[in-house]
């Protein structure tokens, strides 16, 4: 086996692999897991997401997705109304009626997700049984699955995790050795990664989820998968139960993270060292040059992460090691040590890591630290801005293409832009 040359410097410190974690279980500020539909319905192009919920769910999706009234979106809300609450209608019969009408109207739908939400009336419904019942009527034309997007059960990025976990049992079996990249990424980033894999001679390569229901990747004991997103713990476990093997690696944010991510894949597929350097080296150097001007604006500045997207630990690693920033506190909704072990090892020693949230206490710590930039959810941004703190919406880091070499400078700019705005406001 040919070793892959390490073209990334080793950590200069012990890291945070064994660092103590501040675990908080108090009031929390979190966005709804239904938000995942906003990017999933664009990724799986012949799927439809039917949320079973309230009018609030419908308003959330319409506002989050920015869908105009005359558009034909691939998501909708089956609203629990007064007749359902009063027991005048059987909710399962009503759901069957809505689904039948939807599929008659939209013959282009090849996969239908029934998505649970948090109203108590919805929680009482067994959507998994409803999906099985409806599948018997519409298979093979339409595959019908269910998952939860409830904010009670998930943070907002975990809507994708529960969706992909529901899909894993449906994936075809395979004995072929292959690579699976797991997690929704922008189409342009997927194309860039495909070119890198082609250059390295790695294949076949599948991306999960695929663009169409009929193209979902096969899985089996010879499948090697790597996560593109850090919030897919349940999906990873489901794939391992199907026999696939996960390749531990930092996540592909920034020049360093992307190189280490590709390095883990290249080692598994016995890529020659010289080939790896020739394919990856120029891309890494180009990304490093693009990052240099942003480092000049960010180096030495303090950053504070409130828990929201589960991207916090990889982003803190990127900002600390490549931008020279000082992470004061890195809060995350759930700390999956196994998935994040390579990231934690690269964080500066002594970084305060917190899991969960006690909002008032964390706000007090943030105010005391007076960081240069605060990464937080939409609900906290305006109040903190009014107190003179500079903020970055964490949801923007999910919706913007930030993976890979070519997007490294775009990722850095998401942090320099709020600082430049603040400077203009105080000038």
UniProtKB/TrEMBL annotation:
Cofactor entry: [4Fe-4S] cluster
Pfam families associated with the record: Oxidored_nitro (PF00148)
Chain residues that bind [4Fe-4S] cluster: 32, 57, 118
SUPFAM superfamilies in the cross-refs: Helical backbone' metal receptor
UniProt keyword list: 4Fe-4S, ATP-binding, Bacteriochlorophyll biosynthesis, Chlorophyll biosynthesis, Iron, Iron-sulfur, Metal-binding, Nucleotide-binding, Oxidoreductase, Photosynthesis
Keyword flag Oxidoreductase: yes
Enzyme Commission code(s) on record: 1.3.7.7
Catalytically driven reaction(s): chlorophyllide a + oxidized 2[4Fe-4S]-[ferredoxin] + 2 ADP + 2 phosphate = protochlorophyllide a + reduced 2[4Fe-4S]-[ferredoxin] + 2 ATP + 2 H2O
Superkingdom in the source lineage: Bacteria
Family annotation (InterPro entries): LIPOR_BchN/ChlN (IPR050293), Nase/OxRdtase_comp1 (IPR000510), Protochl_reductN (IPR005970)
Pathway: Porphyrin-containing compound metabolism; bacteriochlorophyll biosynthesis (light-independent)
Matching HAMAP family: ChlN_BchN (MF_00352)
UniProt function note: Component of the dark-operative protochlorophyllide reductase (DPOR) that uses Mg-ATP and reduced ferredoxin to reduce ring D of protochlorophyllide (Pchlide) to form chlorophyllide a (Chlide). This reaction is light-independent. The NB-protein (BchN-BchB) is the catalytic component of the complex.
UniProt protein name: Light-independent protochlorophyllide reductase subunit N
Organism in which the protein naturally occurs: Rubrivivax gelatinosus
């Amino acid at each position: 086996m040919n070793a892959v040359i390490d073209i990334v410097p080793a950590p200069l410190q012990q890291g945070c692999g064994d660092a103590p974690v501040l675990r908080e279980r108090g009031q929390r500020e979190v966005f709804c897991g239904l938000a995942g539909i906003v990017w999933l319905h664009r990724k799986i192009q012949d799927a439809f997401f039917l949320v079973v919920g309230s009018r609030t769910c419908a308003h959330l999706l319409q506002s989050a997705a920015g869908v105009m009234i005359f558009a034909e979106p691939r998501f909708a809300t089956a609203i629990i109304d007064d007749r359902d609450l009063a027991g005048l209608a059987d909710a399962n019969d009503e759901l069957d009626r809505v689904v039948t009408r939807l599929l008659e109207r939209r013959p282009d739908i090849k996969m239908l997700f029934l998505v649970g939400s948090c109203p108590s009336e919805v929680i009482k419904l067994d959507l998994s049984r409803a999906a099985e019942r409806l599948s018997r009527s519409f298979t093979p034309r339409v595959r019908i699955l269910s998952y939860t997007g409830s904010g009670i059960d998930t943070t907002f990025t975990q809507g994708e995790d529960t969706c992909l976990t529901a899909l894993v049992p449906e994936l075809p079996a395979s004995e072929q050795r292959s690579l699976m990249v797991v997690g929704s990424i922008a189409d342009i980033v997927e194309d860039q990664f495909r070119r890198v894999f082609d250059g390295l001679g790695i294949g076949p390569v599948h991306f999960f989820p695929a663009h169409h229901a009929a193209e979902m990747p096969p899985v089996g004991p010879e499948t090697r998968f790597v996560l593109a997103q850090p919030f897919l713990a349940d999906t990873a476990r489901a794939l391992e139960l199907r026999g696939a093997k996960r390749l531990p690696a930092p996540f592909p944010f920034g020049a360093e993270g992307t190189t280490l991510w590709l390095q883990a894949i290249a080692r598994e597929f016995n890529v020659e060292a010289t080939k790896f350097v020739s394919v990856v080296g120029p891309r890494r150097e180009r990304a490093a040059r693009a990052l240099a001007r942003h480092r000049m604006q960010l180096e030495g500045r303090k950053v504070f992460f409130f828990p929201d997207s589960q991207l916090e630990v990889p982003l803190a690693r990127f900002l600390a090691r490549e931008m020279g920033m000082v992470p004061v506190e890195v809060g995350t909704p759930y700390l999956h040590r196994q998935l994040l072990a390579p990231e934690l090892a690269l964080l500066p020693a002594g970084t305060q890591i917190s899991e969960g949230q006690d909002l008032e206490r964390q706000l007090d710590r943030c105010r005391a630290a007076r960081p240069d930039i605060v990464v937080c959810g939409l609900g906290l941004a305006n109040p903190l801005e009014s107190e003179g703190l500079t903020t970055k919406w964490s949801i923007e880091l999910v919706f913007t293409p930030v993976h890979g070499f070519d997007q490294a400078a775009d990722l850095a700019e998401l942090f320099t832009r709020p600082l430049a705005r603040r400077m203009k406001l105080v000038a």
